[in-house]
């Protein structure tokens, strides 16, 4: 690694001031630290957010769950509040990485990083969540811009994410065996305004599949999902899977998610 300074602010205001001056926030460090070890990232100053109590926690906020940005994956997975209100979100968190990753990784860190194969972005987009920062609120449909790219501005920090409670939802992930990232993951949520389907692992960034959404809003059955042709032209091909294989996985995982929801 290169030389850097390490700051441990105790308040959001102090962290925001350091970030505005060019410091690099670190949440769980599950992506940043490996990048630094490989010298793919070279921040001159790290801002550790772990000591800021106001950034962690889970609470009910009307018809939504408000989850602090520094809430660990394992805490989301174990939360009785999450398991009761959005069990699909708890299940998603329980299958991120391994036990060590779940003990250190955070919701806000994952969403801000926007890895193309991360699980949380599919829940944020699939549930139509709202991302709260130290400056503003950003709806999920406007947040994810591309590979490792989001609407966050320089120095802007995620403080919490509000997940609307759906009628029912499910997340199905086909894992890449070594990394446990999603080769393809599909989050399906039935809301008052119809069905939302968010796909991760298949393209350069998480995305909504509007054809599946339209079909499932009309008829929420696995057969409806199976009837939708999945276009592979914009999907990833790499050493793990071809675009055509990923297209098939989108269909199969959506069918399985719907079967879980209605079964």
Keywords:
263 residues; alpha+beta; Uridine Diphospho-n-acetylenolpyruvylglucosamine Reductase, domain 2; 24% strand; globular; CO_DH_flav_C_dom_sf; flavoprotein; Xanthine dehydrogenase family protein subunit M; FAD; FAD-bd_PCMH-like_sf
What does this structure look like?
The protein is of the alpha+beta class and about 260 residues long. Among the domains are: about 1-45, Uridine Diphospho-n-acetylenolpyruvylglucosamine Reductase, domain 2, CATH 3.30.43; about 170-260, Enolase-like, domain 1, CATH 3.30.390. It has twelve helices and 14 strands. The chain has helices at about 10-20, 30-35, 75-80, 80-85, 85-95, 100-105, 105-115, 120-125, 140-145, 210-220, 220-225, 245-260, and strands spanning about 5, 25, 45-50, 60, 65-70, 130-135, 135-140, 145, 150, 160-165, 170-175, 180-190, 195-200, 205-210. A five-stranded antiparallel beta sheet has the order 4-5-10-6-7. Strand 13 (about 195-200) and strand 14 form a beta hairpin. The chain is globular, with a radius of gyration of 18 Å. About 45% of the residues are buried.
H/E element string? EHEHEEEHHHHHHEEHEEEEEEEHHH
State the helix count. 12
Average residue-wise pLDDT: 94
Shape: globular
Helix content: 25-40%
Q: Which CATH class of the domain at 168-262 is shown?
A: Alpha Beta
Instruction: Based on the coordinates given, report the CATH architecture of the domain at 168-262.
Output: 2-Layer Sandwich
Rounded radius of gyration (Å): 18 Å
Point out poorly predicted stretches: none
What structural class do you assign from the helix and strand content? alpha+beta
What percentage of amino acids are in beta strands?
Answer: 15-25%
Work out the number of β strands: 14
Q: Please state how the strands of the largest beta sheet are arranged side by side.
A: 4-5-10-6-7
CATH topology of the domain at 168-262: Enolase-like, domain 1
CATH superfamily of the domain at 168-262: CO dehydrogenase flavoprotein, C-terminal domain
Spatial gap, N to C terminus: 51 Å
What does the largest sheet look like?
A: 5 strands, antiparallel
Pfam families: FAD_binding_5
InterPro entries: CO_DH_flav_C, CO_DH_flav_C_dom_sf, Diverse_Substr_Oxidored, FAD-bd_PCMH, FAD-bd_PCMH-like_sf, FAD-bd_PCMH_sub1, FAD-bd_PCMH_sub2, Mopterin_DH_FAD-bd
Domain FAD-binding PCMH-type: 1-168
Organism: Verminephrobacter aporrectodeae subsp. tuberculatae
């Amino acid at each position: 690694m290169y030389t850097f300074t390490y700051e441990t602010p105790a308040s959001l205001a102090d962290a925001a001031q350091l970030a505005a001056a060019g410091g690099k926030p670190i949440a769980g460090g599950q992506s940043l630290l490996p990048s630094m070890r490989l010298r793919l990232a070279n921040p001159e100053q790290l801002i550790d957010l772990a000591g800021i109590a106001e950034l962690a926690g889970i609470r009910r906020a009307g018809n939504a769950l408000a989850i602090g940005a520094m809430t660990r994956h394992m805490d989301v997975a174990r939360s009785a509040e999450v398991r009761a209100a959005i069990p699909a979100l708890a299940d998603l968190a329980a299958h991120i990485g391994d036990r060590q990753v779940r003990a250190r990784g955070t919701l806000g860190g994952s969403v801000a990083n926007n890895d193309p194969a991360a699980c949380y972005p599919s829940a944020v987009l699939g549930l139509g969540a709202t991302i709260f920062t130290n400056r503003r609120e950003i709806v999920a449909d406007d947040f994810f811009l591309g590979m490792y790219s989001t609407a966050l501005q320089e120095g802007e920090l995620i403080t919490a994410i509000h997940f609307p409670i759906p009628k029912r939802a499910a997340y199905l992930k086909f894992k890449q065996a070594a990394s446990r990232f999603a080769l393809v993951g599909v989050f399906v949520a039935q809301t008052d305004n119809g069905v939302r389907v968010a796909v991760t692992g298949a393209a350069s960034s998480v995305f909504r599949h509007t054809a599946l959404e339209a079909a499932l809003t009309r008829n929420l059955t696995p057969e409806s999902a199976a009837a939708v042709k999945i276009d592979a032209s914009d999907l990833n091909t790499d050493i793990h899977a071809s675009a055509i294989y990923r297209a098939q996985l989108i269909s199969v995982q959506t069918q399985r998610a719907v079967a879980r929801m209605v079964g």
